[in-house]
Amino acid sequence: MAGEYHGRAACAAIGGEMATDDAVLISEPTPGVRLLTLNRPQVRNAMTGEMTAAWGTAIEEVAADRDTRVAVVTGAGSSFCSGADLSWLDQAAGHDVTTDRLRDRMLPFYRTWLRPRSLPFPVIAAINGPVVGAAVCLALSCDLRYAGPGAMFSTPFIYLGTHAGMGATWLLQEAIGVSRAREMLYTGREVFSEEALEWGLIGGVADDVLAHSLKIAEQIAGAAPIATRLTKAGLEQAAHGLEASLQWEALAQPVTMTTADLHEGIEARRHRRSPNFRGL
């Protein structure tokens, strides 16, 4: 039933910090759609240790739910996410902080927040406000991105004295091309919704971005789930070129041709009714 997930959240430990039970909320606004809300508006939903732990556990919970067909990610309050919280560096100063130890901490952090990229179903970012630094990479790890009028994107890594992280140097180029990726990373300037749309950083702007994103999610949730999941995998294969895509599609399309959902789709089209796909 829609809404059964409301108020449920995750609790886990990352780097010795515990996630409380409401840092990331999971709800089911419509069947097949899971909404994940970053729920620390008082710190602009920063990627603290607490938030990272809760996010990792919430993602695993949604991924394990076979009824999930689409996920939507948003932020509580007026920000989507303000990026990584680096205050722990001050606390760690003088405690043998080495490059190797920092690398061991960074890689799990990156991979936890980039999990939307590897989920088997589409993920939509409903960007309700500013997106800064590593949070831009979280948005870019989602399959689709929509923004509200007050959304803003910025990657000011080098103006904080640090190199970009979480795949920013690759994800930005994939999304908006080399020249614009360079501009964002070198200048750290703020890119607002309309310009982000022009650049292809987002797919649309809506006054009520969450409602718009949930509407798109509901539409996708109504598609054939096996075909949708294989399409997401196929889009990843496309990065390897045309021949890789042909090889993948020559396997994936016959898989879908053996499903009951294919016959349901044909019958629905023939009788001009909405299909009832069951993932069979």
UniProtKB/TrEMBL annotation:
Which segments of the protein form a coiled coil according to its record? Answer: none
Q: Which residues cross the membrane?
A: 119-141, 153-172
Reaction equation(s) it catalyzes:
a 4-saturated-(3S)-3-hydroxyacyl-CoA = a (3E)-enoyl-CoA + H2O; a (3S)-3-hydroxyacyl-CoA = a (2E)-enoyl-CoA + H2O
Task: Say yes or no: keyword Transmembrane helix present.
Answer: yes
Which InterPro entries does the entry mention? ClpP/crotonase-like_dom_sf, Enoyl-CoA_hyd/isom_CS, Enoyl-CoA_hydra/iso, Enoyl-CoA_hydra_C
Task: Please give one Pfam family short name.
Answer: ECH_1
Q: Which UniProt keywords apply?
A: Lyase, Membrane, Transmembrane, Transmembrane helix
State whether keyword Transmembrane helix applies: yes
State the family named in the UniProt similarity comment for this chain.
Belongs to the enoyl-CoA hydratase/isomerase family.
- The protein's name: Enoyl-CoA hydratase
The organism named in the record is: Cryptosporangium minutisporangium
